[in-house]
Every structure is written in C-alpha cells, then in structure tokens.
C-alpha cells in the first residue's frame, strides 16, 4: 500500500468536514436548520469562533446558507462539474478570526517597536493613512486601502524585512473568500468609524514614543476587531454576502 503524506488541517476545516459529512449522510436534510453556533461549539468541544469560521467555509462552498436573525440552513445540492462544492477553499487559507488573534500578538510588539524607532516620514504616512480612511468612510466606501497603508507604515518603521513581509502576508490573507464573506456580514461604515478611532489612538501612542501605550492600543484594536466579527448573527447587516 503506497504511503501518502499527512497534511495537518486547520481546525475550522476539520469542523467543516465533519458537518459536511453529516449533511451528506442525511443527518441534516436540505432546508433544515443546523444547531445554534454555541450548541455546535459545545458538542464539538471547540470555540465558537472556530465554528463560525467553519460555517462561513461551508457557506462559501455552497453547502449552507446563513440567514441573519434566523439561523444556518442546509442547501439542496446540485451536481456540478469537478466535484460537489461550488467554490473550493484553499487548504492553506487561514481562518479570519484566528488571523486576527495572531495579528494581536505580532502587531502589538510591532507597534511598541515602532514607537521607539518611528521617524517623521513614518508618522506622516500613518497620519495620511488615517485621513484616507476617514475620507473613504465619509464617501460611503469601506476604507481597506487606508487600513492597509496604516499598518504598513507602522511595520516599516521597524526596519525589519521579515516583519514587513509577515504583515504583508497577513494582509494578502485578508483578501481570501472566508475573510471577505465574514466581512460582508459584519463590516459596516459605523464599525469602520470605530476602527478609525482605534487607529488614531495607536498613532498618538507611537507619535508620543510610548511603547507600552502603543502595544496596548494595538491590542485593544485587535480585540475590538475580533469582537466585531464574533457578534451575534442578529447583528449582521444583511443576509448573504457578495
């Protein structure tokens, strides 16, 4: 028997595969509602954020539909060329909530280091990025470009290419279908305005060259971001996502 390589799987993928298997076995019929997120987390022995990531993956792949204010419902499957899933999630894609927690660890220290090393040009880039975010929000546009520019300016102040490439990799991962779908539910202009205020606090701490305050402000921003994406489905702005 040929030996096959063993691939470590992300937790949300393991959860999604188990739920997908139950759907295929008829445990959850088309049109039926899945157990609540908190109940699934308890039965599976995992966190609610991991369950949420799994449910988003199943929705992206066309297995379920999230109906805000109602629940998660199993969809009828139609045969398609190339396999059962309408969209395949790459095995390497990170879970968005897990990504935020990782960013908290890494970017907290980056903010602290930037507070020590930032030069005038870095502070100017951060200031401009916040202004661009504010302009976009006032125009009704999600300020993703300004957001990326702000965090890039912070890490560039550290003058460490490994950290710079790491942060860019984090941001590239944000363009994945899981993060985009989750953002489609929970990213709103009011939530972005709250995030802009958090960016301002980070900037002020770095500009004051206060490493501890910069670290704390970044941690607070990441904690709030995680909370915004972990809110009740009833708080989601709409059903479905583009």
From TrEMBL:
Matches recorded under PROSITE patterns: HTH_GNTR
Record protein name field: FadR/GntR family transcriptional regulator
Pfam families noted in UniProt: FCD, GntR
Region listing for Disordered, in residue ranges: 223-242
Domain HTH gntR-type stretches: 9-77
Recorded superkingdom: Bacteria
Highest classification ranks of the organism: Bacteria, Pseudomonadati, Pseudomonadota, Betaproteobacteria, Burkholderiales
Organism the protein comes from: Curvibacter microcysteis
Alphabetical keyword list: DNA-binding, Transcription, Transcription regulation
InterPro entries (alphabetical): GntR_C (IPR011711), TF_FadR/GntR_C (IPR008920), Tscrpt_reg_HTH_GntR (IPR000524), WH-like_DNA-bd_sf (IPR036388), WH_DNA-bd_sf (IPR036390)
